[in-house]
Amino acid sequence: MASQHSSQGIAIAGVAESDLGSVPGKTIFQLQMEAAKAAIEDAGLEKSDIDGVLTAAPFNSMHMPSMALSEYLGIQPSYSDSTITGGSSFETHVGHAMAAIQAGLCTTCLITYGSTQKSDRSRNPQGTYGNPEPPWQFEAPYGPPLPLAAYAMAARRHMYEFGTTSEQLAEIAVATRKWAALNPKAYTRDPLSIDDVMNSPIVTDPLHRYDCCLVTDGGGAVIVTSLERARDLKKRPVVVLGFADTHSHMGISQMPDLVRTAAGITGPKAFGMAGVKPSDIDVTQIYDSFTITVMLCLEDLGFCAKGEAGAFVSGQRTAPGGEFALNTSGGGLSYCHPGMFGIFLIIEAVRQLRGECGDRQIPSANLALAHGVGGVLSSHATLILGGE
After folding, report:
1. To bridge 52 with a disulfide, which of 83, 106, 286, 367 should be the other Cys (CB 3.0-4.6 Å)?
2. Given a cut of 60, is residue 6 above it in pLDDT?
3. What is the DSSP string of 44-72?
4. Which pLDDT value is given to residue 257?
5. Kind and range of the H or E element at 120?
6. Are strands 207-208 and 218-226 parallel, antiparallel or unpaired?
7. d(CA 225, CA 98)
């Protein structure tokens, strides 16, 4: 950990969202611009300070997104990255920005994302990812509604192997809604009970409506620079202590094990780099595309043993006032979910470490984990962040 506080240390200096929820009349570029401008201001920088641009376009959207965004913003970067690994893209972008800054390729990186998924109704819930060619050649002929069916398969397998119940999955949705009720920016803040989740329609067995993330518009942005520089800026630096990413498959038919994800690889690596362990984490942000996503990652990241996540989250343990602070913004289940949610995990983690979260603030938060998941449990990226 000491090396992270040297001149080679990397920090997040600014974060922000655009308008969220339903934002008709605004383009993906406009939402990214709003978030980028606000994040640059949050850091106390100017647009001219940005010399690295990293972004990921929504699926089935533009090619070469970092080039298109840079042109729109009027930035000619010395480092550019359009890596797309789904919802984990932005945790991966932080890792790439860290490497680029340490290598001297740039000094200050803008990471951003935007989607008008709700307004443009671009989802195709009846279809599949991609074409009936690799890697979907073994799935598309059967017409599963992806990604829903993939996560439902994982949930059913977890139930079969470990006795996990739908009520235990519902605990996550209910606890996350309680956090959303404390977040004025959350899209859905109405009370939610276990019975409400259980009585909501089955979307893909065994997942109910409230086991599934929102569909919203929105954008987010993160500024990454050297720790040395961040110390002279507007806000308290949040140090990048650990990072790891990987992907194990693309199509769900190729997932090695439906209940054992690649978070089991990225978690230990990120914790090892940071020199901390799961029990040291004060606030945890895990991609909640579905309630089962959270359960699998809690186990594979080492917060509980394999098969024990159902018991781990029971009794509203992850709700406000519980023992384990999880997805304190309201998550993708209740706060927002504009196609890929990973950047918002970072934004909330940073705000918690700065003490900026108002009624949902975790007292004395000093270490946070943000874990992104992309595709159909395919890509995983873990960040360990610390307040200086």
Report:
1. 106
2. no
3. T--GGG--EEEE-PPTTS-SSHHHHHHHH
4. 98
5. helix 117-120
6. unpaired
7. 8
121 Cβ contact list (under 8 Å, min separation 6): none
- Please indicate, yes or no, whether the overall pTM of this predicted structure exceeds 0.90: yes
Q: For strand 108-115 and strand 52-55, is the pairing parallel, antiparallel, or unpaired?
A: parallel
Tokens of 49: 């300070």
Of 37, 109, 29, the closest CA to residue 69 belongs to 29
> CA–CA separation, 260 vs 256, rounded Å?
8
Angle, CA 374 vertex, CA 372 and CA 378 arms, to 5°:
115
Does the pLDDT at position 45 exceed 50?
A: yes
The residues pairing with 286 across neighbouring beta strands, listed in sequence order, are 371
| 96 Cβ neighbours under 8 A, 6+ residues apart | 54, 81, 83
Burial tier of 155 (Cβ tally within 10 Å: 0-12, 13-18, 19+): buried
Count of helices and strands (H, E) across the chain? 12, 11
E-assigned strand segments in 116-211:
202-204, 207-208
Q: How far apart are CA 383 and CA 113, in angstroms?
A: 18
In which band, very low, low, confident or very high, does the pLDDT at 58 lie, cut at 50, 70 and 90?
Answer: confident
When comparing pLDDT for 335 and 64, which is higher? 335
Q: Which tens digits make up the pLDDT trace of 99-156?
A: 999 999 999 999 999 999 898 864 444 444 555 556 677 887 888 888 999 999 999 9
Q: Respond yes or no: is residue 287 known to be catalytic.
A: yes
Going along the chain from its start, the domains and CATH numbers come out as: 2-121+217-240 (3.40.47.10), 146-213+243-387 (3.40.47.10)
- From the list 79, 113, 151, 335, the catalytic residue is 335
Tell me what pLDDT residue 143 has.
83
CA atoms within 13 A on the CB side of 262: 22
3-state helix, strand, coil in the chain (%, to 5): 40, 20, 40
How many CA atoms lie within 13 Å of 12's alpha carbon, on the beta-carbon side?
32
Our answer to whether residue 335 is catalytic in this structure is yes
Q: What are the tens digits of pLDDT across the range 207-260?
A: 999 999 999 999 999 999 999 999 999 999 999 999 999 999 999 999 999 999
